[in-house]
TrEMBL record:
PANTHER family tied to this protein: OLIGOPHRENIN 1 (PTHR12552), OLIGOPHRENIN-1 (PTHR12552:SF2)
InterPro entries attached to this UniProt entry: AH/BAR_dom_sf, BAR_dom, GRAF_fam, PH-like_dom_sf, PH_domain, PH_GRAF, Rho_GTPase_activation_prot, RhoGAP_dom
GO function term, MF aspect, one: GTPase activator activity
Organism from which the protein derives: Fulmarus glacialis (Northern fulmar)
Cellular component aspect of the GO annotation: actin cytoskeleton; cytoplasm; dendritic spine; terminal bouton
Residues covered by the PH domain: 138-241
Name this polypeptide is given: Oligophrenin-1
Alphabetized SMART domains for the sequence: PH, RhoGAP
Annotated Rho-GAP domain residues: 253-437
Domain of life: Eukaryota
PROSITE patterns in alphabetical order: PH_DOMAIN, RHOGAP
Keyword Cell membrane among UniProt keywords: no
Subcellular location: Cytoplasm
Length: 448
């Protein structure tokens, strides 16, 4: 009882401290994080010691039952035959059974002693290397992980007991905080990839991202420590994150030949195999796959050498990659210079003036910018023509591509307030693309 109480007390103390520890922000001072790590390691060691002692005692009690109960019964029978003057025949009949039982008891005691020594040795080895002990036939790795789950009202971290089998690439996740009446049970997921999460990309520590066949997006998991994360990533053949994506280099964020080729290939792929996909451009693809596509396409050694028509790239990855490229141009397609004028035009309540002003400003764009804009708007017109299937109207497209094709040079509150007018500009261009593309603008009079 005493060891059981100590085990339960140490367990409660350790998991309570661990839960608080995992909520520490990665942005705290390194000295604070190191001190917290040492405290958790100390509690982990105490809990581990208590666990081993408790299991050792349970094993000892179970083994001792094999003779501690039988021996008194045998002694009682011996006294019964000896002191109660039973017949010689009955005593002689009992003698072989008594001898056999004594021999069995002696063997059991010997086995108990040898097992006790083996357990002591095993306990010692487990204390020296607790993370290397694994039973044959068991999962490659198992233990607690926290999963980031996104809800309408924010993000929560849910505790799961996870078991991963490397050969089959199966991750089994059992929720530990399941509420009464909840339908969610054990999840079996097939692993596709595993990447360590960059420290500066998330507030939590010890995180890594996985992709599975059953889930469309990335799943972010939090391990219990840095060493624990290394074990999970090693089991899952995890990779380090990409720190420098070629697309972020200044010389490759221009409207150059490779950029035009990329946009045209993306448009062709979307219109060929995904133009009727519900929520096209609104549904976001996996960050890992997006970076993979961009790195492959903008590889300086062989730029543009990627077949987007192959099954390697799904529509969400292609549309997200196109938006990423446009958002990360050194200057937006509709330029910083014309940004204020375009916003002012969109604010006009006179619809004819609004259209005319935007039309005129489009023709002030540099040639390559106007060429890119017309290429994109024609594509968005084609998307909207299938709005019954894909549910994407000019208004929806304006919301998505307004901030993508237009942005203020400085992030201010005023710039944020003007985002809706950026959306209006793109919506007008989609709805009146025929006029904007075919004819040069007429001379404008001032807005009434």
């Amino acid at each position: 009882q005493e060891r059981k109480k100590k085990f339960e007390k140490d367990g409660e103390k350790f998991y309570s401290m661990l839960d608080r520890h995992l909520h520490l922000s990665s942005k705290k001072k390194e000295s604070q994080l190191q001190e917290a790590d040492l405290q958790v390691d100390k509690e982990r060691h105490n809990f581990f010691e208590s666990s081993l002692e408790y299991v050792y005692q349970i094993q000892e009690v179970q083994e001792s039952k094999k003779f501690s109960i039988v021996e008194p019964v045998l002694a009682f029978l011996h006294s019964l035959f000896t002191y109660n003057n039973l017949t010689v025949e009955l005593t002689q009949d009992f003698l072989p059974y008594k001898q056999q039982l004594q021999l069995s008891l002696q063997n059991t005691r010997n086995h108990f002693s040898s097992t006790r020594e083996e357990l002591e040795d095993l306990k010692k080895r487990m204390k020296e290397a607790p993370l290397t002990c694994k039973l044959p036939g068991q999962p490659t790795i198992e233990g607690y992980l926290y999963t980031q789950e996104k809800w309408a009202l924010g993000i929560s971290w849910v505790k799961y007991y996870c078991q991963y089998e490397k050969e089959a690439k199966i991750l089994r996740m059992t929720p530990m905080d399941q509420k009464p009446g909840a339908k969610q049970g054990t999840l079996d997921l097939t692993l596709k990839s595993c990447v360590r999460r960059k420290t500066d990309s998330i507030d939590k520590r010890f995180c890594f991202d996985i992709e599975t066949n059953e889930r469309s997006g990335t799943i972010t998991l939090q391990a219990l420590s840095e060493a624990n994360r290394r074990l999970w990533m090693e089991a899952m053949d995890g990779k380090e994150p990409i720190y420098h994506s070629p697309i972020t280099k200044q010389e490759e964020m221009e409207l150059n030949e490779v950029g035009f080729k990329f946009v045209r290939k993306c448009i062709n792929a979307v219109e060929t195999k995904g133009i009727t996909t519900e929520g096209v451009y609104r549904t976001v693809g996996s960050n890992i796959q997006v970076q993979k596509l961009l790195n492959a396409f903008f590889d300086p050694k062989c730029p543009g050498d990627v077949d987007l028509q192959s099954g390697d790239w799904d529509i969400k990855t292609i549309t997200s990659s196109l938006k990423f490229y446009l958002r990360n141009l050194s200057e937006p397609v509709m330029t910083y210079k014309l940004h204020k004028e375009l916003v002012l035009a969109a604010k006009s309540e006179n619809l004819d003036y609004r259209l005319g002003a935007i039309h005129a400003l489009v023709y002030k764009l540099p040639d390559k910018n106007r060429e890119m804009l017309e290429l994109l708007i024609q594509h968005l017109v084609n998307i909207c023509e299938h709005s019954r299937e894909n549910l994407m109207s000019p208004s929806n497209m304006g919301v998505i591509f307004g901030p993508t094709l237009m942005r203020a040079q400085e992030d201010t509150v005023a710039a944020m307030m003007n985002i809706k007018f950026q959306n209006i500009v793109v919506e007008i261009l989609i709805e009146h693309f025929g006029k904007v593309q075919v004819a040069a603008p007429e001379r404008l009079h001032a807005a009434p």
